[in-house]
Amino acid sequence: MSESDIELPRGTASTDSESRLDEDDRLRPEFVRRVMDHVEAGETDAARALVEPLHPADIADLFELVDSDERRALAIAIEELLGGDVLAEMNDHVRDELIDQFEPHEVAEVAGEMETDDAVAMIEDMEEDEQRAVLRALDPDDRAAIEEALTFPEESAGRLMQRDLIAVPQHWTIGQVIDYLRAGDDLTTDFWEVFVVDGRHHPVGTCMLSWILRTPRHVAVADVMKREQTLIPVDMDQEEVALRFQKYALISAAVVDGSGRLVGMITVDDIVHIIQEEASEDALLLSGAGEGDINEPIRESYKARVRWLIANLGTALIAASIIGYFEGTITKMVALAALMPIVMGVGGNAGTQTLAVTVRALATNQLTQSNTWRAILREMRVAVLNGVTIAILLGVGVGLFFLNPILGAVIAAAMLTNILIAGCAGVMMPLALERAGADPAVASSIFVTMVTDSMGVLVFLGLATASGLVG
Amino acid sequence: MSESDIELPRGTASTDSESRLDEDDRLRPEFVRRVMDHVEAGETDAARALVEPLHPADIADLFELVDSDERRALAIAIEELLGGDVLAEMNDHVRDELIDQFEPHEVAEVAGEMETDDAVAMIEDMEEDEQRAVLRALDPDDRAAIEEALTFPEESAGRLMQRDLIAVPQHWTIGQVIDYLRAGDDLTTDFWEVFVVDGRHHPVGTCMLSWILRTPRHVAVADVMKREQTLIPVDMDQEEVALRFQKYALISAAVVDGSGRLVGMITVDDIVHIIQEEASEDALLLSGAGEGDINEPIRESYKARVRWLIANLGTALIAASIIGYFEGTITKMVALAALMPIVMGVGGNAGTQTLAVTVRALATNQLTQSNTWRAILREMRVAVLNGVTIAILLGVGVGLFFLNPILGAVIAAAMLTNILIAGCAGVMMPLALERAGADPAVASSIFVTMVTDSMGVLVFLGLATASGLVG
User: Fold this and answer.
1) Which one in A96, A131, A406, B123 has a CA-CA gap of 20 to 30 Å to B339?
2) What share of chain A in percent tops pLDDT 90?
């Protein structure tokens, strides 16, 4: 490869990289098609030449973008480019499907190239006997590291951490640290901070490499290091780890076992996709779309979503039976049947708004016991403003259209009440679930819709009956 | 302060830090109360002693957690602890409210301590005349840097970047780089990578500090650096910057101007909160909750949400007028009025599920032109499975309950049709908006609800009429 080829920096106006990626760093459809045309025609050299300049993350995207039945052929064609770095970047479902077609010793070979955390992520979802076969084919060091990681709970810090890190004794000078780093041949090369430990291998501080570079050799490392450090317990849930990285703007953090010994490190690049996943799952959880991954097998998507729709069916039946109870009222004035979905629908939407805000504030630790009452009060004040506005618009409109001021007043009162109920349920329900130790996003949306649907019709048809509107 | 005080690492079993933070790194309500009791009693020394050991991010949280009218007193009590590092971590709304009470020269003093990007974030939302007063009070270097940053569009890379970075010529050796880093007194101390530039100050590569530390002095920096680098154009939107950091697992990246010159750098700790914000905004956008920040002024929340509810009212009127059209049918069989919200509601929910999945796949660049048809097909297959399941359950249930198989068949057919329509609208609408260059989350949810509401009743009441059910 000529030097001009490698020197082209990604993201600049190189026509070469522009023909592969669009302005949003997505692989262009024409490029994807071109690669697959070569693959289908058996022109593996041409396919490889196209794929080779891509970043591993883009090669992973390529596999995700092509159809499920094309992936195997692509994998065979560009075999030597399909390394651990590519598999580490690949969507879980696509990767699982792909490695199902590999022999255990092939999986082991790739796992050996990967960092422990990525290898664990690849192996943890395999069938138990295949997993054992892969572990047997690994070299003893890698096997020990992966087996140890697998002893920690899923989605815990122990599975995310790397064991390769730099730890130095606290009595060393900067000069000793530099000499150690320059001499040690088998040390890891990718690290951002050096951990300083005491005699019991407990972390006592961290030192950014830039400080080491900028400090005279004779200074003790203990005098430059930052003593305030954020330690991650090995069994901490990855969501908490992500929040901690985010809150304290960490680049890397030491992972400690139950007795406080340094056992690994987590770096921010391993955590960024977890921050993204955890932050974006609320929209999916609130709508009951499960994992919501477009690469998820259809059967799993179906199972996750239909469960939610059945629950929704159940809550809708409650509203339906309330309406059924008011059959006599509706018979006398069919317009009520046309108007009641408005009260239900707009109320439900107001509830979802409050719910989305509350769930997000809880997830980002912005809403704690200290400001719970303020948050409730705040949502109720917004609900009053919204309720009054919508009630006036709807009440006046309906009153004029039907030339029936009582009907206008009834629907306005019902609308206002339902928006207040929606605000109340939307803020209280996730708070109650959080207090009870449950995920505030999962069950609250079904509950809030149930409340706004049934209360909406109950108040509307109840008022219509009681007001003598249909007398 | 005694040494044992500072040596306590956060996150370990120190009773001291445990009394301040709970297991999720949130400030304990008792601690917040204790601080505010001291503040109210005028015991500023005691308040300061409690707050001093906190991380700046936790001091910022403290301000967010106390009531709006307590913040000023807290700020006065712990004045010297309220530095640029704390303000940089603070919620925008809380910070804006707080600095409104400062004199311009006080704001300038704090801005002088901050990194350019944080100072810009603090100043950019001020009134124009106050902003000018602050800029005048800054020292000329800081002023120039901030004024230059303000020339870039809001939410662009130019506003996020820091100007303090390390750039070295490509012909240097590792030894020269190390000597330069150790000698330069006015260099920044917080950096993770060194940028290598050519004679025109164009970046040609980056070098991790760990590589510099681990390479012999005589080697040329051009031989160790990574040539494939991700460059960020200075006018790139922050959402794109965040996606790029995430995709390529970057720690820092060079920012270049229109002519390709290195003008700044962005580090991952500045981008993590943007990744979080961009990822979590879908739930808020889909529900029409605007910015959805619990610290947002009530009037702004009201304005954002009521606009959405009014739009929702409009779409609900469409469904209402369709129902009105079938008045005759409903009069003959009032049970239809009780059942139609089920068809509308469950259909709406199925649409929201598809919508949430599609919007997320678009936001994370997982769904591109290459796999659009596969995604549509996938959603339709899930819709068929869901639709058939729910239609059978509902149809059989209704048929048995009302002892009316035709009614069961009508509602089953309507339910199936509506779930299919919901799946279709839920996947097509965001795709169409994205293609048109609009944000797929914002308008699609209103549209999908409108479709499922009005099509639901149309099909249900239409079939009920046409089937001779109410003949």
Assistant:
1) A406
2) 62
Is A251 found in the same domain as A140?
no
C-alpha distance from B361 to closest chain A C-alpha (Å)? 7
The domain tally of chain A equals 3
Question: What is the rounded average pLDDT of the residues A189-194?
Answer: 85
Show which of B217, B235, B269 is a domain's final residue. B269
The three-class DSSP label of residue A207 is strand
Q: Is the pLDDT of residue A236 over 90?
A: yes
At residue B184, the pLDDT reads 72
Q: Is B77 domain-assigned?
A: yes
Residue B459 maps to a domain: yes
Let me know whether A327 and A451 are in one domain: yes
- Looking up residue B305, the CATH number of its domain turns out to be 1.10.357.20
B393 at A interface, C-beta within 8 A: yes
A-chain residues within 8 Å CB-CB of B393?
310, 313
- A321 and A188, same domain (yes or no): no
Residue at a domain's end among B108, B139, B159: B159
User: Helix, strand or coil for residue A289?
Assistant: coil
Give residue B459's pLDDT.
97
**Residues A358 and A447 occupy one common structural domain:** yes
In chain A, which residues have their Cβ closer than 8 Å to the Cβ of B374? 67
pLDDT at A196 over 60: yes
Are residue A66 and residue A27 in the same domain, yes or no? Answer: yes
pLDDT 10s digits, B92-131: 899 988 988 888 888 898 888 888 888 888 888 888 888 8
**Per-residue pLDDT, A11:** 42
**d(Cα B271, Cα B263) in Å, to the nearest integer?**
18
Its domain, for residue B37, covers: 3-159
Nearest CA distance, A369 vs chain B (angstrom): 6
CATH of the domain at B141: 1.25.60.10
Same domain, A305 and A432: yes
Query: How far lies B395's CA from each of A224, B246, B387, B388, B458, in Å?
Result: 73, 47, 11, 10, 17
- Residue ranges of chain B with per-residue pLDDT less than 70: 1-18, 471
DSSP state at residue B261: -
Residues A259-278 pLDDT 10s = 999 999 999 988 888 888 88
B227–A6 C-beta distance less than 8 A: yes
In a domain, residue B280? The reply is no
Give kind and range of the element (H or E) at residue B266: strand B262-267
B471 or A141: whose pLDDT is higher? A141
Q: How far apart are CA A57 and CA A54, in angstroms?
A: 8
Report the distance separating Cα A404 and Cα A391, nearest Å. 16
Q: Which residues, 6 or more positions from A436, have their beta carbon under 8 angstroms from its beta carbon?
A: none
Residue A328 has pLDDT above 60, yes or no: yes
What per-residue confidence (pLDDT) applies to A15? 46
pLDDT score of B471: 67
Q: Is B279 domain-assigned? A: no
Residues B77 and B181 in one domain: no
Residues of A in contact with B9 (CB under 8 A): 203-204, 227-231
Report the distance separating Cα A346 and Cα B320, nearest Å: 12
What's the whole-number average pLDDT of chain A? 89
Distance between CA atoms of residues B452 and B351, nearest Å: 7
CATH of residue B199:
3.10.580.10
Residue numbers of B between 327 and 366 with CB closer than 8 Å to A: 327, 330-331, 334-335, 337-342, 344-346, 349-350, 352-361, 363-366
Q: Are B117 and B220 in the same domain? A: no
